[in-house]
Amino acid sequence: MNVKGEEDHEEMMKMEELRRGPWTVEEDFSLINYISLHGEGRWNSLARAAGLKRTGKSCRLRWLNYLRPDVRRGNITLEEQLLILELHSRWGNSWSKIAQHLPGRTDNEIKNYWRTRVQKHAKQLKCDVNSKKFKDTMRYLWMPRLAERIQAHSSATIVSNIANITESASTALNYNTNTTHNITESPQVTIPQAQATSNTICSSSNATSFSSDSPISDFAHDYPNHGTDDFQAHIDTDHLGFIESLISPSGYYHQDLNFQAMEQNTEWMSGDLADNLWNVEDIWSLQQQFNY
DNA sequence: AAGGGATGCAACCGCGTTCGC
DNA sequence: GGCGAACGCGGTTGCATCCCT
C-alpha cells in the first residue's frame, strides 16, 4: 500500500468510528453538558473533547436545530406562516435570513415547512412554486386570509395592542400601504400594489365577516406563549403593521376576485388553519378569474 | 390486521465563504 | 497572498409515523 493508500485507509478507519443517524439521549446530554461548560464553536474539536463520535458538522446541526434552549418547537403559527410567505417572496430560498426574523425557528424548520406545505400546494395546483400564478395566489388569497385569521384570533389581545403601537410607530416610520418600511434591521416589507397599473387596490366588501366563529382554543394552540414577555418581544411591531396592511379595506385584494361569493360558497376559511387555507378546488376556481 | 403509499422532519451532503496561520 | 480548517447555507435523503385501502 502506498502512502496515499495508507492515508485513505486511515481516513476510512476514522470514518468507521464516527456515528451517523439519529442522536441518542446520551449523545444529546454529552453535547448539552459540554456546551454549557465550554460554550459552542470549533465544532470538530468540540466533538472530540465532548467524547462524541460525531463530526463537528453533525454536532453543530444538532445543537442549532434541536438542542439550543431557545429553539421554539411546535406548529408554525399563523403569524409565522404569513411572515414566511412574505419574506420568501422577497428573498427566495434564503432560509437562514428568513429564520432570523422568526425567533426560535431554525432555517431547517422553515425550509421543511416550505417544502412540505407550500410546495405541496403548488404541485396540487399544477404550477411552479416560482410562477407568477402561484405567487399571485399566495399574495392575493393566502396572505390576506392569514392576516384576517390572525386578526380574528387575536383582535382582543395582540393585534389591538399592536395596532396602537403600530399606529404610533407608523408615524415615525412614515408607514402607509403604499410605501415600504423597515422590519428590524433589514427586511423591507413592501405592501403590494396589486399589479401596478393594471390592477388597482380595492377593498373587500365583507372582509371581517368570517372567522369570528373560530374557537379561541385555536389561538391558545397557535400561541402557546402569548402573554409572556418572550412572546411579546418576538412580535415585531412592524410585522403587525404589515399584517394590518394586508387586511381589507386597506389591504390589497385583487379587484377581479369575488371574495364575497367565495366566502359564501366555501368552508375553507373556518376550521383547521393549514388545510382550510388551501382548499385547492376553491383556489383553482378563483384563479380562473385572474384571466391568465 | 396488514401492507403500501404519503407525509413530515431530522440528519447528511456538497459547496461557497470566512478565518487564522 | 496562499492554503487548509472551520463554518454556514441550501439542497437532498432516509426513516419513522400516519393514513388509506
UniProtKB/TrEMBL annotation:
Pfam families per UniProt: Myb_DNA-binding (PF00249)
Residues in Myb-like domain copies: 15-67, 68-118
GO molecular function (one): sequence-specific DNA binding
Domain spans labelled HTH myb-type: 15-71, 72-122
Entry keywords, A to Z: DNA-binding, Nucleus, Repeat, Transcription, Transcription regulation
Compartments it resides in: Nucleus
Example of a GO cellular component annotation carried by this entry: nucleus
InterPro entries: EOBI/EOBII-like_plant, Homeodomain-like_sf, Myb_dom, SANT/Myb
Predominant location: nucleus
The UniProt record lists the keyword ATP-binding: no
Protein name: Uncharacterized protein
